């Protein structure tokens, strides 16, 4: 979209999101666990699996559901961070400083 305006990019973004939603199938069990975590006490969910099984798509769906429930969402991609606690803390600083901790 060379030279496109903000409206063009917004339309493209909506189309991309719609395509992702159409392509996302299954994972009812995982989504149920996540929905229960949203309704319940503070939880930690561990997502793991072989490459290419849809972990990133599942995490995007978790984020979407969290936003829909009014929860703040912060996205960090470990592929773009230096693998150190300091880099993580810098990237997540606003959340870690202003967020409520689990107890």
Shape: globular
Helix content: 55-70%
Class by helix and strand content?
A: mainly alpha
**How do the SSEs run, as a string of H and E?**
HHHHH
Rg, Cα atoms, Å: 16 Å
Strand content: under 5%
Most strands sheet: none
Account of the 3D structure:
The chain has 103 residues and is mainly alpha-helical. The chain is globular, with a radius of gyration of 16 Å. The protein starts with 5 loop residues before the first helix and ends in a 5-residue tail after the last helix. The mean pLDDT is 83.
Descriptors for this entry?
5 helices; 103 residues; mainly alpha
Short description:
This protein is mainly alpha-helical. It has a domain at 76-102.
Produce the secondary structure layout.
Blueprint lengths: L5 H18 L4 H12 L15 H14 L16 H7 L1 H6 L5
